[in-house]
Amino acid sequence: MDESRVIEVKRDILAGNDRSAEKFRMLRKEEGTFLLDIMGSPGAGKTTFLLALMESLKKLSDAKMGVIEADLESDVDALKIKAAGIPSVELNTKGVCHVEMGMMKQAYAAFGDLKFDYLFLENIGNLVCPADFDTGCHRRIMLLSVPEGWDKVCKYPPMFAVVDALIVTKCDYLPLNEDFDMEALKEHARILNPKLDIFVTSARTGEGMDDVAAWVFEKRKQMLS
Amino acid sequence: MHEMSLVRSVVSIVTEEAEAAGAAKVTKVHIVLGEGRDIVEDLFESLFQFLARGTVAEGARVVLHTRPYMVRCNACGNEFHLIPIDKRTWTCPECGKYKDYQLVSGMEFYISKIEASKGN
Questions:
Q1: Bridge-partner residues for A145, per DSSP?
Q2: B3-67+107-118: what fold?
Q3: N or C end of chain B: smaller count of CB under 10 Å?
Q4: Domains of chain B: which residue ranges?
Q5: What ipTM, to 2 d.p.?
Q6: Which of B14, B82, B115 has the CB atom closest to A6's CB atom?
Q7: Sheet holding A139-145, edge to edge
Q8: Chain A residues inside the 8 Å CB shell of B113
Q9: Answer CATH for A15-224 from 1.10.1040.10, 3.40.50.300, 3.40.50.720, 3.40.710.10
Q10: How close A156 comes to chain B (CA, Å)?
Q11: pLDDT truncated to tens, each residue of chain A (225 aa)?
Q12: Which chain A residues are closer than 8 Å to B38 by Cβ?
């Protein structure tokens, strides 16, 4: 008769994506390309931040830079990057809420023979799903804008737990948002991630951008050493 | 809706393991899930039923075992449950050290075992 049996599995559900990401990361490292995954909610200011970051990085070195613009539907962001004279590839996920390795490899291949010192992935605007998926980048950062409120750290703890740095954006809005408790944000963000680096910036005024650029520059140097 | 990608991977692992073990039908899939993984359980279950159709795992029950955030105190080694939004849990209940720990659990996401009926 029908006998039940137990099969021990112990297999990580994300292992397929993780393995592919690790290989991709190694290959880019060998080429000297530092990959940075930029995450944050819709409207956190990812594209504007990225444009300002690349300007600041240009002051530090004559680096070759490129951008993978992940978007659910449009090419709005990719066009902004192209208008700034930066090679970019548009990665339309057609409604998928995160980027995973299959998409990432395709997007990278679309650059053809172009090689970069820095390659940025502007991830899908979402504070939930991208946290789970390794995109093969060397470092991951997340943006939280002042208008969104400091308490997002309480509502989306996994995202704050998986990143190397938290960038507070639109700090020029601080005088308009009295409820934004910077100290509480910093304290909570480091609860699950005690080593988290935190920067307070405004792409519009340029505040803090050189510090972020220096951090990115340093992380690439660490990768190469 | 990242559950779709995750469930696709679950179905593929389960069918691979069941077939390798010569199982005729999978009845239960046990998944260990850390608190730090944002998964909609109902959606996960119904997607599984959908994607497992026509495979050896069709109709299997998904059993989720959740694991809380656990940290190990750097000072005394005691492990305790951390609730990110509750300040009272940021202090080691054993030695009283405040916010000095490493995360040891809460990000799990793996298939621990499957239950199957024997093949012929």
A1: A169
A2: hypothetical protein PF0899 fold (3.30.2320)
A3: C
A4: 3-67+107-118, 70-103
A5: 0.85
A6: B115
A7: A88-92, A65-71, A118-122, A34-40, A139-145, A165-169, A197-200
A8: 6-10
A9: 3.40.50.300
A10: 9
A11: 467 899 999 999 999 999 999 999 999 999 999 999 999 999 999 999 999 999 999 999 999 999 999 988 888 888 899 999 999 999 988 878 889 999 999 999 999 999 999 999 999 999 988 998 999 999 999 999 999 999 999 999 999 999 999 999 999 999 999 999 999 999 999 998 989 999 999 999 999 999 999 999 999 999 999
A12: 128-129, 131-132, 158
